[in-house]
Write a structure and sequence with these properties.
Helix content: 40-55%
Distance between the termini: 86 Å
Number of helices: 11
Strand content: 5-15%
Number of domains: 4
Number of strands: 7
Structural class: alpha+beta
Mean pLDDT: 87
Order of helices and strands: EEEEHHHHHHHHHHEEEH
Low-confidence stretches: none
CATH superfamily of the largest domain: DD-peptidase/beta-lactamase superfamily
Strand order of the largest sheet: 5-6-7
Length: about 350
């Protein structure tokens, strides 16, 4: 029996015996076969893809994507079993993958008909699938074979350490977090504080306690402070502008102050401030961390004013019109840079 493949809407024969076996990596059982494409098949597929011109309306495309999402849900048990057979994942993770596929098709199908072409970056693989696939590929390149599945869990006390990977220096990690507002890395660092301060496994409660103990040791009392997940994407985390300013003042007296300041975006130069205040006297004079959520805009950091004085600046907006706050934030930075002697620049004595 000859296997066939669909290329550009046409069935193409692969030829007798030209098949690739699909092997379950957990059991090494052959669970199926797929046609083996020859070079001419690949060239034909690329040529047809390059020449393709869409004829569907946006509405027709939407209906196809949403119907696909419905079919995924209706056949999720069947599809998850196939994923398990092919990848070796446990059934729970395979069901999760089907759910992620449903989310992707539903999201794509609900885009407005007025949407223009845009670029967005998403992780299409779950952490389990990505880790398993990457490890299996690298292990295979070294001549090894990985059996079994990948699952989440706590490392047993008697586990043998096989390898250790040292991370970059903390100053480098903080720079990546602050320059580009990397929420995932921020949360990982937040959880690491708890794991280091109170031993693994990490938890948000541990990190909360460690941070508040550190603040207390520094003589900083922020009774309103609320920390939820440390990612910068929480709706319940709280700190006042005054206390954020006090924290920045305390940090300026720290031995690692240069690393902290250098990690913050520099106005008109890099990070999230690269495109702001480029034709202004403040350009290159302020290290400012930005933050944004729906109905929230904030900046906080250090500014070197026109008289060579270093000033802490904090600006929080929580309002339905917060999206319009950037010109006001920029105006504040300009005013602080150009102001004369006033109460706000009285030196603070410790």
């Amino acid at each position: 029996m000859e296997a066939a493949m669909l290329i550009g809407g046409e069935w193409r024969q692969a030829g007798a015996g030209e098949e690739i076996e699909v092997v379950n990596p957990a059991t090494e059982e052959v669970v199926g076969t797929v046609p083996a494409a020859r070079p001419e098949h690949v060239r034909d597929a690329f040529a047809k893809a390059k020449a393709f011109r869409p004829t569907l309306t946006r509405y027709e495309r939407q209906q196809i994507l949403l119907k696909t999402a419905e079919l995924l849900v209706a056949r999720k048990e069947e599809l998850s079993r196939l994923i398990t057979l092919e990848s070796g994942l446990c059934l729970k993770d395979s069901l999760y993958e089907v759910g992620r596929a449903f989310d992707v098709f539903t999201f794509a199908g609900q885009l407005s008909a007025q949407c223009q072409e845009q670029a967005r970056y998403y992780s299409v693989l779950s952490p389990q699938v990505y880790t398993a696939g990457l490890f299996r590929m690298l292990w295979g390149e070294l001549g090894g074979r990985l059996h079994g599945t990948v699952r989440e869990g706590i490392v047993p006390p008697g586990a043998t350490l096989v390898a250790r990977q040292e991370s970059p220096a903390l100053s480098e990690l903080v720079r990546d977090i602050n320059k580009y507002s990397n929420n995932v890395m921020a949360r990982q660092l937040f959880l690491t504080l708890g794991a280091v301060g109170e031993n693994a496994p990490a938890s948000a409660d541990k990190s909360n306690r460690v941070i508040k103990q550190w603040l207390a040791a520094k003589g900083l009392s922020f009774p309103e402070l609320v920390l939820e997940n440390g990612s910068g994407l929480s709706r319940i985390e709280r700190i006042t502008a005054r206390h954020m300013g006090e924290l920045l003042l305390a940090a300026y007296g720290s031995p690692v102050m240069p690393e902290l300041v250098a990690s913050l975006p520099l106005t008109a130069v890099d990070g999230t401030m690269r495109k702001r205040l480029s034709r202004n006297l403040v350009a290159g004079q302020a290290h400012i961390k930005t933050g944004s959520l729906s109905n929230v805009r904030s900046i906080a950091g250090y500014l070197l004013d026109s008289r060579g004085r270093r000033v802490v600046v904090v600006f929080f907006v929580n309002h339905a019109n917060a999206g319009n706050a950037q010109p006001v934030q920029d105006a504040l930075l300009q005013w602080v840079y150009q102001r004369g002697d006033d109460a706000c620049c009285t030196p603070r004595r410790r």
